[in-house]
Amino acid sequence: MSERKLVIPGDPLGEGRAGHGAYEEDGKVFAGCIGLAEDKGGMFFVIPLSGIYNPKRGDGVIGKVTDVSFSKWFVDINSPYEAVLGLADATDEFIDLTKTDMTKYFNFNDMIFAEITAVSNTKNINLSMRNRKCRKLRGGRLIHVTPAKVPRIIGKAGSMVEMIKNMTNTQIVVGQNGIVWVKGDHEDIAMDVITTIERKSHVQGLTDQIKAMLEEKMKDFPKPVKRVVDEEEHSHSERDEHNPYGEGF
């Protein structure tokens, strides 16, 4: 397959080895889910087009604080499994729990961008805020997308999401768990574009289509001279040039 093609479970992919989303039978490889098939040197993969979020160590996720206990916070990360943010992973400060209100740091319904540091066999999930990109998300708006389509929204080396941010003068944080946070001058346009990417994630040449869409939507607005970012977002946007989001950033 020189290009990705849409497949359904049971579709033959070829002879070789089965990667994620595929399975082997009698020396042949078949699709194991609905998605886009890809051949990487005889290793066949299927990128799913739907499905729930399956937490993985190293993922950057957006979550909502649902409960506060004596020394930890419980966080909804858009998964069947609840995550826990322990006190030691939330701050470097020494905290006297007999004198400090935990809600001073994170309160009910606060939205946070955190890193998954551990996932046990029984799906106990631990979060951390120690990565410099992790922070509380203040204001802005949220979009829920299919987790499997997050890489398409981010784009190669972060190209897609950076283009949206620059052309709409917005801050955007993409969680691997299928939640996207948007804040800035043209939130409506940025959100519309992101949902379009999700809907057309299987389309070839999507980047050019999205660029044209942004140009059309932004033609009546002054072109931003330079996108203004706050200090927290600046730390979030400092990415490794080879793998700007890693598994989750």
Explain the layout of strands and helices:
Elements: E1 5-7, E2 12-15, E3 17-18, E4 22-25, E5 28-31, E6 35-40, E7 43-48, E8 60-68, E9 72-76, E10 83-86, H1 87-90, E11 111-119, E12 125-128, E13 135-137, E14 141-144, H2 150-154, H3 159-168, E15 170-174, E16 179-184, H4 187-199, H5 206-218, H6 231-237
Parallel strand pairs: 3-7, 10-12
Antiparallel strand pairs: 1-6, 2-5, 4-5, 6-7, 8-9, 8-11, 9-10, 11-12, 11-13, 14-16, 15-16
Q: How many independent structural domains?
A: 3
Number of helices: 6
SSE order, as H and E?
EEEEEEEEEEHEEEEHHEEHHH
Sheet-strand content, in percent, reads: 25-35%
- Low-confidence blocks of residues: 231-249
Any overview of this molecule?
The chain has helices spanning 87-90, 150-154, 159-168, 187-199, 206-218, 231-237, and strands at 5-7, 12-15, 17-18, 22-25, 28-31, 35-40, 43-48, 60-68, 72-76, 83-86, 111-119, 125-128, 135-137, 141-144, 170-174, 179-184. β9 (72-76) and β10 (83-86) form a beta hairpin. By secondary structure, the protein is α+β, with helices and mostly antiparallel strands. It has a five-stranded mixed β-barrel. Strands 1-6-7-3 form a four-stranded mixed β-sheet, with no helix packed on it. Mean pLDDT is 85; it is low at 231-249. The chain is built from six helices and 16 strands. α3 (159-168) runs parallel beside α5 (206-218) and α4 (187-199) runs antiparallel to α5. The protein is flat. The protein folds into three domains: 5-48, Beta Barrel (OB fold (Dihydrolipoamide Acetyltransferase, E2P)), CATH 2.40.50; 60-137, Nucleic acid-binding proteins (OB fold (Dihydrolipoamide Acetyltransferase, E2P), Beta Barrel), CATH 2.40.50.140; 141-237, K Homology domain, type 1 (Ribosomal Protein S8, Chain: A, domain 1), CATH 3.30.1370.10.
